[in-house]
Amino acid sequence: MECSVAIQVLPMDSASDEDTIRVVDAVIAEIQKYDVNPYVGPFETAIEGDYDTCMEVLKKCQLVAAEAGCGQVMTYAKIDYKPNGAVLTTEKKVGKYHQGEN
């Protein structure tokens, strides 16, 4: 795994909190279709995998939000890319804080 990305999608023209949640849920549902080990947090979703797949997911997030009715979407991404090795996994970074969940 050479890449991890934290993705935050913000629908800029949502009519309500419920509408924002609907759009974000559609984006998360799309992310879950990929083999990228998604970790959903309250402000962003982290994914990890090979670089090309992570970049495809990032692109698709914006398109799905637009397809869900957003006229303007702001997407913030933090990308950790290590072309000749492995990046730290989400489990390695935060797993000890979530032991016993689920």
TrEMBL record:
Pfam families tied to this protein: Thiamine_BP (PF01910)
Q: Which GO terms describe its cellular component?
A: cytosol
Family annotation (Gene3D superfamilies):
3.30.70.930
Residues annotated as domain Thiamine-binding protein: 5-97
Query: Which InterPro entries does the protein's record reference?
Result: MTH1187/YkoF-like, Thiamine_BP, UPF0045_domain
Query: Belongs to which family?
Result: Belongs to the UPF0045 family.
Full protein name: Thiamine-binding protein domain-containing protein
